[in-house]
């Protein structure tokens, strides 16, 4: 009788990802993570041709955020979410801008989408956290991120297994596969049409719809600022995104405010609902 492989386990409660994945500061880095993913020519081609990010940006963002929360805080639902994502990507294929055939589940491409999370978490911690991670914390975070990769259906041979193996792999992808794709241009543009949010309480949506012509321009500029600023500098350079010393000083000031304010917030404001519920349940179980 054939035995099934055990379900991959999500990161354990109390680990680094349980502290940071659902917290406000890490969420600010998600646009930078997405932008680095689609700077890969094959990934960018797949998103350009198959994603609904242009026609349903708020829904697409909500679904992506829910996936990230499930990988870390979803318990038994984490592996199911990984299977759902692989099923969703089975039919995504085409030709990239270099004339090469791609498939979304090709390990080299699928693993890059996962890999970007690690340097983005490090960059967010450097810019917005109380202090950069120690070497031991970086290793712990990477070990937990490997667990997330297994949830997504990646095999160990498809992922660098240590931090020492990760950085040469990362630099090689930056050198060989990363460029200013059309999707990256759209994600950092400030003049791309974006509809007002269509999620949330009706009164809030109505107010936002009425004020959207006024709110959208500064929000678009702020999104561009954070997307480029929270990108690791070597990735920013590989893509060709501009960043000035003046912007760097502004980012440092923003980070100083963020690292003072966010830790003072109550959990209900500091963490997304799924993360908050999981953390509360784990605290109750521990007691």
From TrEMBL:
<protein>
    <submittedName>
        <fullName>DUF2236 domain-containing protein</fullName>
    </submittedName>
</protein>
<dbReference type="GO" id="GO:0016491">
    <property type="term" value="F:oxidoreductase activity"/>
</dbReference>
<dbReference type="InterPro" id="IPR018713">
    <property type="entry name" value="MPAB/Lcp_cat_dom"/>
</dbReference>
<feature type="domain" description="ER-bound oxygenase mpaB/mpaB'/Rubber oxygenase catalytic">
    <location>
        <begin position="18"/>
        <end position="260"/>
    </location>
</feature>
<dbReference type="Pfam" id="PF09995">
    <property type="entry name" value="MPAB_Lcp_cat"/>
</dbReference>
